[in-house]
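for the writeup, i need someone to sanity check this before i put it in the appendix. the sequnce is what the collaborator sent (i think, or maybe the updated version? ugh). structure was predicted straight from it, no edits. if anything looks off just tell me and ill rerun, i have time this weekend
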Amino acid sequence: MTTNDNEINKVDEEKGAILTAYYATLVAVGFLSCLPVHHLKLPKRIIGFDKSAQFFPLAGIIIALPSIIVLAIASYFNLPPLLCAGLCIVAMMATTGALHEDGLADVFDGFGGGRDKARKLEIMHDSRLGTYGSLALISAFALKVAALGHLLSQQDLYNTAAQWITIAAVSRAAMVYLWQAIPAANEKSLSSAYGMPRFKHAMITLGLGFGAALLLLGTSWLSPLLLITAVIYIILEAYKRICMINIGGHTGDVLGASQQIIEIALLILFCIFIS
C-alpha cells in the first residue's frame, strides 16, 4: 500500500468518526428533546446508546439554542431580568417537553410518598402529580428564574448565555455519569430499553462537558470550574446514595431529576462566582 493510499484511508477514517459523532449527537438530541431530528433519517447502526450517550453534552448545547434565542429577544426589548429568565426557562421546557421536570416531580413524589421500594416505584410510574412533586416543580422553577435573573442583572447577555449553554451541557453529562454509576432499579427502567453507557463513554461525556464549559466561558474560569466540578461531584454522589437507599438504583425519572438538580446547582454556583 502506497503512502497516498494510507493518507486516503486515514482521511476516510476521520470522516467516518466525524459522521458517527454527528449522527450520535442527533440521536441524543432526539432522545432528550422535542426537536424534530427524526426527519433526518438517521442510520440505525448509530442508535446504540453506548455511542450516543457520550454526546449528551453536545446535544445539550443544541437543545439550549432555542431558549438562548428567546433570551436574546427578551433582552433586546429591555424586559426585566426576571421576566427574561422566566421566558428563557419556559422556552427550554418547551424544547425538552418538560422531560426532566417530569422526572423531578416523579422522584419527589415517589421518594417522599412511598414507604418501601415497590411503593416508591409504583408512585413514580403513576402519571398523576402529588404534593411533593408539585412543590418540587414550583421550587425548581422559582430557583431557576431567580438565579438566571440575577446572572442577567449582574453581567451582559453574552456571558449569561455562555453560562446557560454550559449548564445545559454539563447537567446532561452528569446524567450519563449517574446512569452508568448505579444499577437499574427494576426491569422497566430506561436501561432495559436502551442499555447502560459504559464507564469509558461516561468519562468521555464528562470530558466533553468540562471542555465545552472551558471553551464557552474562557480560560479565566479554569480555577472556578475545577471547584464547581468538585461540588457537582459531591452532589451527584449524595444523590446517588439517596437513590440507592430509596429504590436501589436508577430509573429514567431518577436521571431526569439529576439533570434538574445539577442545573439548579450550577445556576446557584455561577451566581456565587460572579458576585
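Confidence is low (pLDDT under 50) at residues 3-13. The longest helix spans residues 3-32.
thx in advance!!
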